[in-house]
Amino acid sequence: MQLAGWIDRELYSGKDYFFTCYDIDSLEYAYKDGVADRDNARRKLEVTTALGNLENAPRHVRKTASARRGAK
């Protein structure tokens, strides 16, 4: 994903932090007939919250990721 330019990496305090390079999702999604749960925004929020709960990135890393997303 890094070679495709979808994600980037920031090394900070001996750890690699990965982040998306875009604020919007570039993929189109399709669903099976009869599937009731089709809320992409809710799913993205759940994934983001779960990952954030695993380990909060330092402020420096969050600022760098935000700045790089804005430059694209």
Structure description:
It is a single chain. The chain has one domain (7-24, 38-71). It is 39% helix and 17% strand. It has helices at 40-54, 59-71; strands spanning 7-12, 15-20. The chain has a two-stranded antiparallel ribbon. Strand 1 and strand 2 form a beta hairpin. It is elongated, with a radius of gyration of 15 Å. The model has no long low-confidence stretch (mean pLDDT 76).
Strand pairing plus helix content: what structural class? alpha+beta
Helix segment tally: 2
Strands ordered across the widest β-sheet: 1-2
Q: Beta-sheet strand percentage? A: 15-25%
Cα end-to-end separation: 16 Å
**Total separate domains:** 1
Number of strands: 2
Can you give the helix content as a percent range? 25-40%
**Which sequence of SSEs, written as H and E, runs from N to C?**
EEHH
The profile of the biggest β sheet is:
2 strands, antiparallel
Radius of gyration: 15 Å
The whole-number mean of residue pLDDT values reads 76
Cα shape: elongated
**Unreliable spans:** none
SSE map:
Elements (H helix, E strand, L loop, with lengths): L6 E6 L2 E6 L19 H15 L4 H13 L1
Antiparallel strand pairs: 1-2
Q: Would you summarize the structure shown here?
A:
By secondary structure, the protein is α+β, with helices and mostly antiparallel strands.
Relevant terms:
2 strands; 72 residues; elongated; alpha+beta; two-stranded antiparallel sheet
